[in-house]
Amino acid sequence: MSESAMPTLSELLRTFRIRAGFTQAALAEVAGLSEQAISVLERGTRSRPRIDTVRSLTAALALTPVEADQFLSVARGKNKRAGTTGLAGRPLITGTTPVPWQLPPAAQDFTGRTAQLEAVVSVLRNPSGTKPVSLVAVTGMGGIGKTTLAVKAAHQLTDSYPDGHLYLNLRGYGPGDPVSVADAQAQLLRSVGVDVRRIPEDVEEAAGLLRSQLAGRRTLMLLDNAADAAHVLPLLPGSAGSAVLITSRGSLTSLPGARQIHLDALSQSETIELLTGVVGESRVAAEPGAAKTLATMSGRLPLAVRVIGGRLAARPTWPIQHLVTLLEDEGRRLDTLGSDETGVRASIASSVAFLENSERALDREAARSLPLLSIPDGADLVVGVAAAILELPAGRTEAILERLADLNLLEAAAPERYRFHDLIRAFGRERAVDVLDPGQRDAVLQRVLRFYTSFAWALQSKSYATSPRIALGTVPFTPLPAATNAEQATRWLDAEHHNLMDRYHQAMTAGLTISPLIPELTLALFGYHELRSRWVEMSKMCGAALQVAETSGMHSVAAWLQHDHAIPEVESGSLDIAATRLLRALEMFRAIPDRQGQARCCTSAAHVLGRLGRVDEAIELATEGLELSLQLGDTRVEGVAYLALGGIYDRNGDYALADDAYGCGIALAKASGDRRLVAKQYLSTGFSHVLVGRTDDALEPILRGLKVAREAGNKELESQALQHLAAVFARRGEYLKAQQTVEEAIDLIHPLRNRVRLGYFTLELGKISLAAGDFTSAVPHLEDAIDILQGLAPHLETTARDLLEVAHQRQPHSYIYRFDEA
C-alpha cells in the first residue's frame, strides 16, 4: 500500500467522530477542547496537535488500544498501515477463534420507520463497549417488516460491536416446531468456534458455555422470529459490551430489561415511497393514481409491496393498473390490519395470478403446484419430497421450485432445499382447501410418506441387507448407489428427520390414521432407528403403527412391529415389558405361521428372559430358535441363537458350554463376511464375560471387536467396545485407563446425538470416580448423568441418583457392571 493510501489525521478524526455519533461541538465539549480546534484538525489545517489534545480525543472517542495507537502515530507523522484494524475499529483477529459476520444484507430500499429505527439504534449503540447487555424486542404481525428493520439497525451498529454479529432464525411461528433452545444454542456456539463435540446437551450448561464464550467480546446478536421470552432467555450473553436484537410476532413484555418496539403498517406515503424504490420513479410518476390504489390494496405491508413491486420490476412492460385490476377481487385479499395475514393474501394471490395467466407453461405449472407444496408440515422442502408431491421428475420439479423462488413465493434455503415463508404457506393452504377435496389433500401426504418409506427401505437394504422386514415392503424402492454408503444415507435422513416426524404426526391427525403406509414406514425405518439408537421415536411409532397394522389385517407386519416395539424397552432396561411384548410377538409369528420371524423372536426373547433370570424358559426358546434357523438354513439367526445360549450358559456358570456357543456364533459371523456382525459377536462374548466376572477372559474378544468395528468405520459399535473395555479396566482397578477409555467413547458418541448412550457414559465416569475414591469428580459426573437421563432411561437415572447420595456421603463403593446398566 502506498503512503498516499494511508488515512490522514483529519480523515481518522472525522471517521471516529461520526462513528461515535458526535457533532464537532459535542466532541469539543466532551474532550474539553474548543469547537474551533476540532474544526481546524478535521479541515487538515493543523496536522500535528499537542499530545494532550490527542489523549483527550482518544478518551472522548472511546478508541480501542489499536485505534489509539494508530491515531497517535498519525498525529505524530508516523503514518501506520491501516490494514491491521480498518477505520471501523475492527480489531485484528489472531488465533483460530472465528469472528462471525452473519447479518443478512440490509434492504437497499428501506423506507420509513425513522422513529423506530432511531429508537433501536439509540438503545443498542455502545461505542465504548462498557454498557451492560442491551436488549431490544421488535414485535408486530407477520409481514410487517420486523426483520427488515432489525437487520437495517444491526448494520448501523456494526462499529459498536467489532467482535462479530450473530444471526439466527428461531422459527417461533411454524408451521412445524420452532428451533429448540438446545439446537439454537448449538448453532450459536458453533458460530463462535466451539467444537460441536464439546457442546453440552443440557440447556443450562450450554447457556453457561455460551455466556462464557461471549464474555469479553463486543458482539451483536439478532434473534429472529422468537416464539416467546422463554425461547430467547437461554441464548442471551451475560457480560457488558454485547447486545441482542429480537423479533417476534408475539409480545415479549416479559423479557426483563428489553426495550419494546412495536411496528404497525406503513403510512400511505411510505408505501408509495417503497414501491418507487422497487419499480422506479418514472413508472410511479406515470400512474400515480394506480400507485396509490396499489398501496392501499397491498395492506401497506412491506412484504406485500416488495412482492408486488418485484413482479413489476421484473416485467417493465406491465402497467401498474394491471396489478390493481387483479387485486380488485376482494374475496382473494387478506383482511385488514389485525390479522397476521392482512394484506399478504392479496400480494401473494397477485403473484400466483401472474403465474396462472402467463404464456409460459412452467409458470402455469408453478401456480398449480403452490397449493400442493404447501400442504405438508415441516421446516423446509427438499426436491425429492416436492417431486413426490407433484408426481414429476426431479429436474422438472426443481425448475418449478426455482420459478417460485424467483417470485419470492419460496426461499432457496440451500442447494435442493427450499422453504416457505409461513404466511405464503398459509395462503397456499387456503388455496389447497379451495381447489382440492379432503381426499386429494390426504393423497399429498400419502405421497410424502411413500417417498420416505421408499428411502427408508433403500437405507435398510444397505445397512441390514438380510433383514426379513424388507420382504414385507409394498412400496418399491431404488437401491442406493454403490458409491453411497449407509452412513451417508443416514446423514441425509438425519437432516430430514425433523420434517419426516412433522409429516408423520400430521398424517396421523389427518385422514391417514388407518393408512397401511403408517405401519410400513415404521417398519422401514427400523434400520435408521437402530443405526442412530433413536429408541424414543421407534417406541412411539411402533406403538401407533401396531394398532393400524392389526386393524388392517397386516399380520406379518404387526408381528414384526410387536417384536421391534420391545427393543426400546430392552435399551431402557424395562425388561419385563420387553419380555411381554416379545412373547406376544412369538405367539403372533406362530399363528401366521412365520418360521423365520418365529426363529428371530425366540432368540430375542431368550436373551431378555436370560437377563431376567428365567433361565429354563430362555434355554428352551434359544434352542427352539437354533433348531428353526438350522431348518431354514438361516446362518444369521443361527448365530444370534448361539449368542443367546452363550449368555445363558455364562450366567449359569457353564463356561465351557458358553465358550463353545460363542465360538460357533463367531465362526458363522466370519463366514458371512459381515464385519458388523463379527464385531457384534466378539463384543457380546466379551460383554457376557464381564457381567459374570470373567474379566481377564473378556479382554481378548473385546479388543478383537474394537479392531473390527474400527476397520468397518462403525462408530456406534466402536463406542460399545470402548464401553466394555472401560468396564474391564475398572474391574481391574485401573481407574485412570477406564476414565480415559470412557472419555474416548464420549467423543465418538457426541456427533451421533444419542442422549441415552451419552448419559450412560457420563454415569460410567461417575461410577469410576466413585470406585477410585475421587468423590469430588464423582459428584458432577453423576449430576450431569441425572440431567441427561431424566425422562429417557429411568433405571439409569435411578442408579445415578443412588450413587450421587453415596458420593455426597463419601462412602467407599466398588465398581459394578450390571445387566440393566449395559
Describe the protein's topology:
Elements: H1 9-20, H2 24-31, H3 35-43, H4 51-60, H5 65-75, H6 114-124, E1 134-139, H7 146-156, E2 165-169, H8 181-191, H9 203-214, E3 220-224, H10 229-232, E4 243-248, E5 258-262, H11 268-279, H12 281-286, H13 288-297, H14 302-314, H15 320-327, H16 344-356, H17 361-374, E6 381-382, H18 383-390, H19 394-406, E7 411-414, E8 417-419, H20 422-435, H21 438-463, H22 486-509, H23 517-524, H24 526-532, H25 535-551, H26 555-572, H27 575-591, H28 595-611, H29 615-632, H30 635-652, H31 655-672, H32 675-691, H33 695-712, H34 715-731, H35 735-749, H36 755-771, H37 775-789, H38 794-808
Parallel strand pairs: 1-4, 1-5, 2-3, 3-4
Antiparallel strand pairs: 6-8, 7-8
Helix pairs in contact: 2-3, 4-5, 6-7, 8-9, 11-13, 11-14, 13-15, 14-16, 16-17, 17-19, 17-20, 18-19, 18-21, 21-22, 21-23, 21-24, 23-25, 23-26, 25-26, 26-27, 26-28, 27-28, 28-29, 28-30, 29-30, 30-31, 30-32, 31-32, 32-33, 32-34, 33-34, 34-35, 35-36, 36-37, 36-38, 37-38
